[in-house]
């Protein structure tokens, strides 16, 4: 007999099963291929913060005062206002939040720097405005809070806005302090006239709204639109407490640049941009850390007395330059003469997550380098309507954090109490370019602003993007290439989308090509050809569609109207190697469709021809200053992988000086390499009349920092020009050189532009190397290992591990070369080295037999006469001895002989 209880249990189990079937909980991370980053808009000017209305429309701001709305349904962006703001330093239009009842009252809250003084003071202010369909109505402005700030020579404005589910509005403010004269440690200099250098006046001041996250409850009744607010219960200081501001929710902040509120728990999260010291100091305090903060209730988070997990700074006498006792996190005391608040402060609370420039002992997965921590949203699947883009349940209750400098996003998994469990990288293979704000839309997709490459600049790669999740069938990935993207008019271009692919292997792809503004496709298939008749800039695109109708697009920029010039160098000898100091006759030729040719429209003086000797140690670095495209040099690569490009550009002044300006200042002074490398590692400033100091980079080795400096200094070198026809000699190697260098003959011509198109530059280059090459300098190898030297001074060798293994040298001119010497060693193997052209099984042009020896010996292979450039494969075939990873052939040097 089934009792009523048994029936009840059966019903409950059935309901749970059905619920789990409808809303399955995912306990494994989804494959990254299920996420797609879609660019909605680009070419923004310092985008700062966004918010998303219930209808899906996105509102966002730019620091210079731009207020925009983007409609994802139509793909249209509209500028609603250029707000007049004080746009200097770190000030401007900083924060945005839509009212929780925005759909009814159309109110938006903005935090911005007032361009005019108020009562003889500069202020940053929180105001409420009404938004119409076409404009931000500045006549409706209601000023809610005005915060007096120091105007010049200070940093850290913060300015992020967020609402919680009770309708409380949070605003983050920075410490409004100059951090650059405290050696990257605690800026607590309270000497007379030094208020700009004392964060105790703000962050540690209970009677000041700077260096805080404030919490207020704005008036939300449309019938009483006066812009007033009340103080919610539970702020840090009860109302009417002497020497305090009741708006303060959390204090002790340096630069809480981005904040978020967990809609379920009400917990506050923020990213704290930390100080710059690269190393711990025995008597000053800890190195700089960035922080992710979590506040479950009101509290003091320690700045400028503590950082990270309450690592204390020392009281420091800036006159005597001596340290006293460390600050006590249980009872911090604000002794500053600039303090107008309480002397004894609430106990300091530790950070939730913290990390320095170097690898973090607690959170090593966050990497190394520059830091700029920010807090994103906490995702709750139940908050978002079902949609094709909604994130899966795996991300339920996870916090998204990101770093503006390091370009990563991580998710934070927490237990039900909000305690940290683990960090996981989100979309680690996807490139993010300075993410500056993010929020989930009502469709469950993640929307993001990317600031772009350079700080304080209008970046072409500053974008509004959407991260979509694709269940079931995934979008195809569109790839587009062309045989040319610039040329004269008419210009015929062959396009290919053959590299496009689909993660769902069974899908067949269709292609639609759009070369003009026509709404109908003008070609189909994976490849297409189109002739652009009219000069101008064109943006052809291909739409790649899978079998279920999902699609993605790729675009290219094509410039029509100016044909690139053709530059060539004729040489009377071998184009790959030089022998001795013989003279070489050369002739440069230039042809341009619009300009003419040498001496017939093109003056020889307009062609820049240079011949340079490149020391063995610096050949690639100096080559970078001449080549059409800079190769992936170590110094250049290290710069690109660091945070350097946020503050420096190659040729233009940014926050810091351009690399070319640095190169011109220091020239070829080798002593400057060590000095500048040390500056990169330790940070500092004062040499370029800038209020900003370069961050420390203690994670870099002196050798790597030196490579970065040498690359930078190479950009200022000017080569002497030579005639377009003449003779050069390979006799420039200094007597002190221990290894032979490289010669570089380059010809460059920049045309005059045509049909409204910009001038184009073309180069021709002949690189002449010494004919003796280290085998380890091969361009590619297979089944061969680079064997580390057994002791200092011994060269790297190439170890052949199996029969048929090879190394290859690309694009060698073999004209006039009759022999090849090979320096090898094997104590057990017998076999043959084969020299083959253009493929491992290509034509054999020479062989050398190899037998067991007790030391390195040189074998000579006679070569068949060969002309033109080829890829040379050096293949080893074993006949006896049993080749394996312990018994192999070592090849050290090869030398080409005439």
From TrEMBL:
Pfam families in UniProt: CBM_6, Cytochrom_C, GSDH, PKD
PROSITE patterns: CBM6, CYTC
SUPFAM superfamilies: Cytochrome c, Galactose-binding domain-like, PKD domain, Soluble quinoprotein glucose dehydrogenase
SMART domains given in the database record: CBD_IV, PKD
Ranges for domain CBM6: 771-897
Residues passing through the membrane, by range: none
Record's keyword terms, sorted: Electron transport, Heme, Iron, Metal-binding, Signal, Transport
Location of the Cytochrome c domain: 630-716
Protein name as annotated: Cytochrome c
Source species: Nibrella viscosa
């Amino acid at each position: 007999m089934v009792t009523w209880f048994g029936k009840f249990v059966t019903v409950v189990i059935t309901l749970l099963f059905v619920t789990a079937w409808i809303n399955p909980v995912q306990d494994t991370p989804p494959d990254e291929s299920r996420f797609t980053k879609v660019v909605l808009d680009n070419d923004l000017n310092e985008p700062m913060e966004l918010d998303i209305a219930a209808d899906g429309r996105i509102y966002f701001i730019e620091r210079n005062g731009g207020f925009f709305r983007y409609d994802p349904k139509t793909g249209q962006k509209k500028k609603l206002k250029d707000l007049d703001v004080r746009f200097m330093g770190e000030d401007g239009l900083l924060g945005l939040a839509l009212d929780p009842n925005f759909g009814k009252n159309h109110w938006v809250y903005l935090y911005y720097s007032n361009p005019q003084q108020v009562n003889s003071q500069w202020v940053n202010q929180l105001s409420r405005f009404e938004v119409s369909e076409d404009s931000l109505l500045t006549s409706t402005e209601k000023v809610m809070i005005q915060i007096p700030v120091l105007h010049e020579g200070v940093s850290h404005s913060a300015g992020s806005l967020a609402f919680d589910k009770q309708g409380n509005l949070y605003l983050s403010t920075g410490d409004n302090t100059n951090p650059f004269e405290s050696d990257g440690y605690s800026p607590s200099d309270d000497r007379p006239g030094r208020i700009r250098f004392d964060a105790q006046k703000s962050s540690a001041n209970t009677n000041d709204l700077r260096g805080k996250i404030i919490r207020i409850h704005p008036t939300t009744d449309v019938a009483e639109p006066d812009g007033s607010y009340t103080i919610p219960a539970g702020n840090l200081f009860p109302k009417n407490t002497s020497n305090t501001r009741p708006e303060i929710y959390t204090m002790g902040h340096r630069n809480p640049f981005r904040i978020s509120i967990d809609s379920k728990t009400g917990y506050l999260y923020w990213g704290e941009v930390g100080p710059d010291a690269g190393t711990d100091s025995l008597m000053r305090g800890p190195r700089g850390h960035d922080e992710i903060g979590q506040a479950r209730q009101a509290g003091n988070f320690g700045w400028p007395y503590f950082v990270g997990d309450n690592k204390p700074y020392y009281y420091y006498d800036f006159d005597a330059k001596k340290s006293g006792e460390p600050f006590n996190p249980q009872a911090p005391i604000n002794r500053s003469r600039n303090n107008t608040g309480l002397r004894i402060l609430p106990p300091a609370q530790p950070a939730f997550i913290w990390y320095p420039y170097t690898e973090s002992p607690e959170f090593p997965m966050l990497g190394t380098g520059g830091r700029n921590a920010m807090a994103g949203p906490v995702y709750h699947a139940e908050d978002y309507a079902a949609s094709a883009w909604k994130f899966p349940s795996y991300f339920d209750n996870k916090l998204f954090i990101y770093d503006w400098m390091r370009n990563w996003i991580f998710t934070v998994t927490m237990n039900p109490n909000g305690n940290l469990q683990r960090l996981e990288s989100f979309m680690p293979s996807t490139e993010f370019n300075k993410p500056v704000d993010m929020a989930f839309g009502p469709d469950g997709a993640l929307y993001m602003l990317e600031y772009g490459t350079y700080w304080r600049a209008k970046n072409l790669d500053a974008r509004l993007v959407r991260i979509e999740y694709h269940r079931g069938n995934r979008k195809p990935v569109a790839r587009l290439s062309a045989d040319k993207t610039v040329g004269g008019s008419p210009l015929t271009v062959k396009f290919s989308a053959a590299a496009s692919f689909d993660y769902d292997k069974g899908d067949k792809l269709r292609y639609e090509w759009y070369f003009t503004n026509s709404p109908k496709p003008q070609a189909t298939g994976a490849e297409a050809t189109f002739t652009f008749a009219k000069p101008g800039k064109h943006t052809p695109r291909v739409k790649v569609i899978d079998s279920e109708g999902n699609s993605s697009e790729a675009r290219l920029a094509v410039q029509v109207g100016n044909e690139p010039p053709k530059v060539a160098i004729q040489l009377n000898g071998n184009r790959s190697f030089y022998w001795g100091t013989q003279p070489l006759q050369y002739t440069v030729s230039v042809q341009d469709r619009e300009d003419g040719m040498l001496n017939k429209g093109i003056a020889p003086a307009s062609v820049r021809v240079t011949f340079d000797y490149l020391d063995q140690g610096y050949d690639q670095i100096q080559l970078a200053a001449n080549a059409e495209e800079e190769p992936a040099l170590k110094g250049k690569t290290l710069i690109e992988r660091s945070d350097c490009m946020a503050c420096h550009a190659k040729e233009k002044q940014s926050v810091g000086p351009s690399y070319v300006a640095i190169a011109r200042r220091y020239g070829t002074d080798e002593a400057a390499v060590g000095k500048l490398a040390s500056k990169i590692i330790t940070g500092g400033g004062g040499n370029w009349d800038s209020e900003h100091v370069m961050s420390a980079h203690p994670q870099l080795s002196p050798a790597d920092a030196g490579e970065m400096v040498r690359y930078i200094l190479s950009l200022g070198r000017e080569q002497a020009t030579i005639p377009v026809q003449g003779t050069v000699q390979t006799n420039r190697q200094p007597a002190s050189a221990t290894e032979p260098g490289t010669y570089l003959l380059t010809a460059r011509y920049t045309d005059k532009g045509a049909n409204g198109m910009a001038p184009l530059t073309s180069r021709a280059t002949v690189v002449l190397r010494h004919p003796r090459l280290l085998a380890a300098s091969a361009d590619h190898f297979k089944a061969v290992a680079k064997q580390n030297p057994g002791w200092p001074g011994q060269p790297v060798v190439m170890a052949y591990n199996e029969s048929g293994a090879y190394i290859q040298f690309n694009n060698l001119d073999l004209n006039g070369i009759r022999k090849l010497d090979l320096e090898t060693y094997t104590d057990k193997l017998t076999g043959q080295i084969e020299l083959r052209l253009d493929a491992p099984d290509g034509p054999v042009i020479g062989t050398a037999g190899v037998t067991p020896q007790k030391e390195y010996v040189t074998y000579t292979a006679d070569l068949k006469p060969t002309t033109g450039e080829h890829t040379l494969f050096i293949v080893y075939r074993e006949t006896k001895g049993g080749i394996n990873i312990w018994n192999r052939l070592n090849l050290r040097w090869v030398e080409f002989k005439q």
